[in-house]
Amino acid sequence: MRILVKGTGVAGLTAAFELARSGITVEVCERNAEPSRGASWYAGGMLAPWCERESAEAAVLTLGQEALDWWDDATPGLVVRHGTLVVAPARDKVELSRFASRTAGYRWVDEGEIAALEPDLAGRFRSGLYFPGEGHLDPRLALKSLHERLCTMGVRFHMGIPLDEEPFDRVVNCTGSAAIGGISDLRGVRGEMLYLATPEVSLSRPVRLLHPRIPLYIVPREPGRFMVGATMIETEDAGAISARSMMEFLNAAYAVHPAFAEAEIIETGTGVRPAYPDNLPDVTQDGRTIFINGAHRHGFLLSPAMARQAAEVVCQTLSQKERDHETSGEWRRA
Ligand SMILES: Cc1cc2nc3c(=O)[nH]c(=O)nc-3n(C[C@H](O)[C@H](O)[C@H](O)COP(=O)(O)OP(=O)(O)OC[C@H]3O[C@@H](n4cnc5c(N)ncnc54)[C@H](O)[C@@H]3O)c2cc1C
């Protein structure tokens, strides 16, 4: 029995991992010569189910909580479990109260506690919300690590070359926004981001700055490097970052710490998040193809749950006669 996974974004690699560890023979194909440069490449890597609940359905919280352990298991040593700090400029304190009213799993922190958590932010914010159960990872390192692990598990990769799907018993399609138009109701949500480099600032955890228009955050990478994101724009346009978005990001970074004014902008990027109307991912089946898509802004948070669901669907279909009807939407009510 051979399964083909299409796409080396977070949906594809997590699915390949769950399938391979179920004992199934898996091969992975990617249309590009390099592993994923899709939305996954530009992600913040926040594993933040409680914060995300502020604007997402309950399933994001229930299914997202398993993500930290999953990534720890699949990519040992890459998950940082330092929680999330949410702050707001003094004039926007009401925004903090509003955020608190829509979330759980936090505690209020005052100026002294903020300084204890993030010494470089001492004296900059009077109050904030600290979500201790959350974590983050570097998506690029995590995908590389997962790719290498899959290779050691015997999974074959076919990069940048068209592959005949016919010999495979099942195809797991994880092609992200490339499937827009082919999967009904799937749309693109543009997310811009940039990387800053400065030795003057040190952060231990993602810092979210509440903002009336953009959910802004700074995620620390290796020492002296920071990912700043991310816009949410209803378009499939993956073109270069706009001047407006760049200004919003730089203003936000400067509001978090003035030393960011002297930082180098070392990269800008745009990813198109694949999303369904309810902004929840889904595992669907059409004949012998299983689709995992629609992760929206939660690819790293929810792919472990989606991958497990897809592996269950594959195992069920392998153990039964051919089932060619669609099975959609069941997993999220689990
Ligand atoms: C700026 C930004 C910040 C984000 N931050 C976070 C975050 O902090 N936490 C979080 O959980 N999520 C975050 N996300 C969301 C997350 O990145 C997406 O949900 C996720 O990347 C979607 O993964 P995917 O595998 O479905 O798609 P993609 O990553 O786009 O991967 C699809 C892959 O399929 C390949 N492909 C396409 N067509 C074919 C074909 N015909 N054959 C073979 N391969 C094909 C593509 O080349 C690509 O490699 C963020 C997204 C953005 C843009």
Strand order of the largest sheet: 5-6-4-11-12-13-10-14
Total beta strands:
16
Radius of gyration, in Å, reads 20 Å
Largest sheet: 8 strands, mixed
Mean pLDDT score, rounded? Answer: 93
Strand content: 15-25%
Give the low-confidence spans. Answer: 321-334
Helical residues, percent: 25-40%
Count of helical stretches: 9
User: H/E series, N to C?
Assistant: EHEEHHHEHEHEEHEEEEEEHEEEH
Bound molecules: flavin-adenine dinucleotide
Morphology: elongated
Structural class: alpha/beta
Report the end-to-end length measured between terminal Cα atoms.
28 Å
Report a brief summary of the structure:
The chain is built from 9 helices and 16 strands. Helices cover 29% and strands 25% of the residues.
What this model shows, in words?
With 334 residues, the chain is an alpha/beta fold. The protein is built from nine helices and 16 strands. The strands form three sheets. Strands 5-6-4-11-12-13-10-14 form an eight-stranded mixed beta sheet, with helices on both faces. A six-stranded mixed beta sheet has the order 8-2-1-9-16-15, with helices on one face. The radius of gyration is 20 Å and the shape is elongated. Mean pLDDT is 93; it is low at 321-334.
